[in-house]
Amino acid sequence: MDKELGEWEDEAAATLSGLLSSSDDVSVAVLEILHGHPIPPMVKHTLVALIPRNQRPEGDQKIHWINASHLCKSKNDGGLGFQDMGIFNGALAKQVWRLLKDGNLLVARLLRTRYYLHGDLFNASLGIHPSFTWRSLMDARQVVLCGSRWLVGDGSLLNVWDDRWLSRPLSFKPVTPKPIEWSNIKVSDLIDRDSASWKTELVRQIFLECDIELILSIPLCDSWPTNNLIRHHHPQDLFSIHSAYHMLVSNSIANAGSSSNHDNSLW
């Protein structure tokens, strides 16, 4: 594995050197190299270090006092809008999305036969001696879930407490504390199939008022289609690298802010 990563780094560095000679935009150069591939941490730090170097005039060896992490902030936040190479790894989620939406793709059929023959992509395990591609896709699954939720069909296989099925960003889950006696309940258990409606009394028995309103507002179809994963903020059900990147940046900033507030509270 170390040998493969070493060869990958050498190839990326050589290609990057050629691209930088004819382009001032490091982000564009990196996109050309890394489309559809995860970035090893050592390569990430090397690429980020090249950003300020590539922006100075030829022969200028002055010290740059701006931290590279500041350059990767959006222009609205006072940065220069360069892409964060580590966060960009999440763009692999687009490939996960394609596997979910088009199970007839040749690569989807091959991966399903090899890694999750009797399950689905989200419940699949890493397996024994997984390929580098499969490892990368496994890491990208969480990115897909971050901005997605399940559109309720027949409700089967959807765990009420663990799956994302309510229209409540960012968690998409109930806020009601999980009762012990209802800990393994499925969404299908809340549905009356005879009348194609929710079991209102059961819903009111289990959930808090804020969850009750969301659950009862979900429309049901009496043809009982399978549950469908959708992009909550994109009605066209599209998944783009651009939207995934900005979602990851927003989550990263929010997590950093919550960590900072927690640290300050300790003092």
Describe this structure in words.
The protein has 3 domains: 75 residues, no CATH class; 56 residues, no CATH class; 82 residues. Helices cover 45% and strands 4% of the residues. It contains 10 helices and 4 strands; from the N terminus they run αααααααβββααβα. The strands form 2 sheets. The protein has a two-stranded antiparallel ribbon with strand order 1-4. It has a two-stranded antiparallel sheet with strand order 2-3.
Q: Layout of SSEs?
A:
Blueprint: H1 2-20, H2 26-34, H3 41-54, H4 68-71, H5 93-101, H6 106-115, H7 132-146, E1 148-151, E2 191-192, E3 197-198, H8 200-206, H9 209-216, E4 228-231, H10 241-266
Antiparallel strand pairs: 1-4, 2-3
Helix pairs in contact: 1-2, 5-7
Strand numbers in spatial order across the main sheet: 1-4
Query: Which regions contain 5 or more consecutive residues with pLDDT less than 50?
Result: 19-33, 259-267
Structural class: mainly alpha
Radius of gyration of CA atoms, rounded to a whole number: 23 Å
Order of helices and strands: HHHHHHHEEEHHEH
N-to-C CA distance: 44 Å
Tally of distinct domains: 3
How many helices does DSSP assign?
A: 10
On the 0 to 100 scale, the average pLDDT is: 74
- Strand portion, in percent? under 5%
* Sheet with the most strands, sense and barrel status: 2 strands, antiparallel
The tally of strands reads 4
